[in-house]
Amino acid sequence: MSVGEKAKAKAEQAVGKTVRRVAHSVHKETLAAKGAALEARGRIRGEKERAKDSFKR
To answer: Which end of the chain is more exposed for a tag (fewer CB within 10 A), N or C?
Structure first.
């Protein structure tokens, strides 16, 4: 478990959500999909870190 990895996960989620919302507002669906993918990658990274934490206990 790394605090840095958890921070990266939260940052990816925040950036992805922002990109997705802005892209939707200006009707750029390709960019919105990229933002959604980035957000999903952040969620998966966060889940991985939580799983690693549960095995350390």
So the answer is: C
Tokens linked to 24: 């939707």
Q: What digits encode the pLDDT tens for the residues 20-50?
A: 999 999 999 999 999 999 999 999 999 998 8
Q: What is the sign, positive or negative, of the torsion defined by CA atoms of 2, 50, 52, 48?
A: negative
Q: Under 8 Å CB-to-CB from 34, ≥6 apart: which residues?
A: 19, 23
The one-character DSSP state at 2 is -
Give the sign of the dihedral formed by CA 11, CA 17, CA 21, CA 23: positive
